């Protein structure tokens, strides 16, 4: 600044276009020091004054009260002291006064209530004391009230909650108190941020606080508040992004089935009065700095905790050994000294590693649910030490190896789910000694061998699913006195409570026992994709089985991207040494029935592609995004098995423009019976692929397959269609 140049050209000075008078002065962030000059009061046209982020000290001069046109004034982040002057109430056009981050003392002047145009009032990070004037409630245009980090005491005046325009209310780090928060707090519908942390509030949190649809940040940490937080935070606080509750007296924190993201916070361990913590059904993760679920260690401080539910979150970590140090009052752990633990549920958490060896200390455990994780390990015999276990669910968790023989020791077991793993070897005969078992699911594993005759001991069982394994043997004709271990035991007939039995996708043979007609409650029986022979029982529950019943479900998967014959040449411009490189055959995937249900949306009509005499075809989208066709055969039709076999005849292979083979359905393949060398049939013409005698006379023989296969090979090597001119 120099006397030789016009004031209006100085840095930080803005003048009006008409009267050439100073309207704005901004010298922020210039590292200036000293005191505020009283001569500023002579700038009668001044509208905006910004001295922020400097080193000015002293007090605000009285002459500033003459600036009646002032709308914006900021002295934040300086070294100013003294009391907030009463004359601020004379600047009636003031909208935005910021004095934060200074050393102002005294109380908040009541004269501020005259500033009816105020939109922001920021006195945070000073040394103010006294109470919040009730007159602040007169500022009906106020959007932000920030007095955080002062020494303000007393209660929050109810009048503040009449400011319907308020969006930010920062009162944290003061000495405010009160027995419970005012219920009127729920009237500030536009509030986006409420910060009341580090005060002395006690009592209960009003439910009205949890019905503020615009609230994004709620901080109540380090008070002495208590409450049972509601389960409907996703509906009552749909915009909530941040929630801080550190060091309060909450006994119940129920945040399940919301859309919370980020890490499970360690500060939860400081809520020492916790009795129930429920976070299941969100998108929470554990901190990436550790492979363990480290937040569990912090919860060992919560000695009153009796319910911990963290299931159905993508936690993706290892259960730490500190799980054994959680509260001895813990009864339900949905994720030692846990002598009272009743339920441990950690399903669908992407957990890895092994089951902690300390788990067998949980002698009162009745429910253990670890399904849908990545626990690639064997099932250790120590699990058999849980003698009070009622429900054991280890489904879809990549367990491998054998089924422990010692499971027979858990006589209290009612529901056993080991399906969709990689378990192998045979089913231990001791399994059938669990006489009170109600539900048994061993499907979608690699179990082999026969079904032991001791199955008849499961008199109380209502559902047995052994499908999609490698079980073998025959299906016996009688039930009561079967001695052979190479069959489905005859004693199945005395299991009068049985409702569901699935033996599909095995290697079983023989007839379906007629004694199954005695199972009055049976409404699902599946032996598809085996080799049963003879008549299907017609009495008892079989009278009600129709082509629409569950009895029929058999699936054949034609992967659009995976093929029976997969041969593909590189494009000509990628040829090496004059020869093309063959793409290797893609291995066929093994897909569980459970995954097919999900992929087809439970075989819904919206996924139905078509219906034929032998069954239906559904569109399915697998977990990795692959699109497949799922064919569901009617197993009550004898022709369905033949239809399954002809799906992979050469005539049903279609080559695309890149010479990639796909399993298709031209309807031209036929299956001849044993001893037949030729047969006559009607055929639709498929140019180039059908042998002449098939297309002209309907004469079918194995030579037709040879012809079709030859055409396909020729097409592959010449990269020409059968209809190409070179073949004419």
From TrEMBL:
Location (main, coarse): membrane
Record GO cellular component, one term: membrane
Ranges that cross the membrane: 551-569
Occurrences of domain Protein kinase (ranges): 501-728
Pfam families associated with the record: LRR_1, LRR_14, PK_Tyr_Ser-Thr
Superkingdom, taxonomy of origin: Eukaryota
Membrane topology: Single-pass type I membrane protein
Location relative to the cell: Membrane
SMART domains documented for this protein: LRR_TYP
InterPro entries reported in the protein's UniProt record: Kinase-like_dom_sf, Leu-rich_rpt, Leu-rich_rpt_typical-subtyp, LRR_dom_sf, LRR_R13L4/SHOC2-like, Prot_kinase_dom, Ser-Thr/Tyr_kinase_cat_dom
GO molecular function, one term: ATP binding
SUPFAM superfamilies, alphabetized: L domain-like, Protein kinase-like (PK-like), RNI-like
Keyword flag rRNA-binding: no
Record protein name field: Protein kinase domain-containing protein
């Amino acid at each position: 600044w120099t006397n030789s140049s016009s004031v209006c050209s100085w840095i930080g000075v803005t003048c009006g276009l008409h009267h050439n008078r100073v309207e704005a002065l901004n010298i922020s962030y210039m590292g200036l020091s000293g005191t505020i000059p009283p001569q500023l009061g002579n700038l009668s046209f001044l509208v905006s004054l910004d001295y922020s982020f400097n080193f000015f000290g002293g007090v605000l001069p009285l002459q500033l009260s003459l600036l009646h046109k002032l709308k914006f004034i900021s002295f934040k982040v300086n070294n100013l002291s003294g009391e907030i002057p009463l004359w601020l109430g004379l600047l009636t056009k003031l909208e935005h006064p910021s004095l934060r981050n200074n050393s102002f003392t005294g109380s908040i002047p009541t004269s501020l209530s005259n500033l009816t145009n105020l939109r922001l009032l920021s006195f945070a990070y000073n040394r103010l004391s006294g109470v919040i004037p009730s007159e602040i409630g007169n500022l009906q245009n106020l959007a932000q009230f920030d007095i955080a980090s002062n020494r303000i005491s007393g209660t929050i005046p109810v009048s503040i909650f009449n400011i319907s325009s308020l969006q930010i209310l920062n009162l944290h780090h003061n000495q405010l108190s009160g027995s419970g928060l005012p219920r009127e707090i729920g009237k500030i519908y536009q509030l986006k941020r409420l910060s009341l942390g580090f005060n002395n509030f006690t009592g209960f949190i009003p439910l009205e606080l949890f019905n503020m649809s615009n609230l994004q940040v709620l901080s109540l940490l380090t008070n002495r508040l208590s409450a049972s937080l509601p389960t409907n935070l996703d509906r009552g606080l749909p915009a909530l992004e941040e929630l801080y509750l550190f060091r309060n007296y909450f006994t119940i924190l129920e945040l399940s089935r919301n859309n919370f993201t980020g890490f499970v916070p360690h500060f939860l361990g400081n809520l020492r009065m916790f009795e129930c913590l429920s976070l299941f059904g969100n998108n929470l993760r554990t901190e990436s700095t550790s492979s363990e679920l480290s937040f569990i260690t912090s919860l060992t401080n919560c000695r009153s905790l009796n319910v911990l539910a963290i299931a159905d979150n993508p936690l993706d970590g290892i259960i730490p050994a500190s799980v054994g140090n959680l509260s001895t009052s813990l009864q339900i752990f949905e994720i030692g000294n846990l002598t009272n633990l009743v339920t441990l549920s950690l399903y669908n958490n992407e957990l890895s590693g092994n089951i902690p060896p300390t788990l067998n200390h949980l002698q009162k455990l009745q429910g253990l649910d670890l399904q849908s994780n990545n626990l690639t390990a064997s099932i250790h015999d120590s699990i058999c030490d849980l003698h009070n276990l009622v429900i054991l669910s280890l489904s879809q968790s990549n367990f491998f190896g054998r089924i422990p023989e010692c499971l027979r020791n858990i006589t209290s077991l009612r529901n056993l789910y080991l399906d969709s793993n990689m378990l192998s070897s045979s089913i231990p005969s001791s399994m059938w000694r669990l006489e009170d078992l109600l539900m048994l699911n061993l499907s979608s594993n690699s179990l082999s061998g026969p079904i032991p005759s001791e199955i008849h001991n499961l008199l109380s069982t209502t559902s047995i699913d052994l499908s999609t394994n490698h079980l073998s043997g025959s299906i016996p004709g009688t039930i009561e006195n079967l001695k052979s271990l190479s069959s489905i035991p005859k004693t199945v007939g005395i299991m009068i409570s049985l409702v569901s039995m699935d033996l599909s996708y095995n290697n079983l043979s023989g007839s379906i026992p007629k004694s199954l007609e005695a199972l009055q409650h049976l409404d699902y029986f599946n032996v598809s994709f085996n080799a049963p022979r003879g008549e299907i029982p017609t009495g008892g529950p079989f009278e009600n089985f129709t082509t629409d019943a569950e009895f029929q479900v058999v699936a054949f998967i034609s992967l659009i991207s995976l093929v029976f014959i997969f041969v593909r040449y590189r494009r000509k411009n990628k040829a090496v040494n004059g020869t093309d490189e063959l793409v290797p055959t893609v291995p066929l995937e093994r897909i569980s029935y459970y995954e097919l249900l999900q992929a087809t949306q439970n075989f819904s009509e919206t996924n139905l592609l078509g219906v034929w005499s032998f069954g239906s075809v559904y569109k399915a989208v697998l977990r990795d995004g692959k699109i497949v066709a799922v064919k569901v055969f009617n197993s009550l039709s004898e022709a369905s098995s033949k239809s399954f076999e002809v799906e992979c005849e050469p005539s049903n292979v279609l080559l695309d423009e890149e010479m990639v083979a796909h399993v298709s359905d031209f309807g031209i393949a036929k299956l001849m019976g044993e001893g037949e060398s030729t047969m006559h049939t009607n055929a639709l013409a498929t140019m180039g692929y059908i042998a002449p005698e098939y297309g002209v006379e309907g004469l079918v023989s194995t030579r037709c397959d040879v012809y079709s296969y030859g055409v396909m090979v020729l097409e592959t090597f010449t990269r020409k269609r059968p209809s190409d001119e070179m073949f004419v």
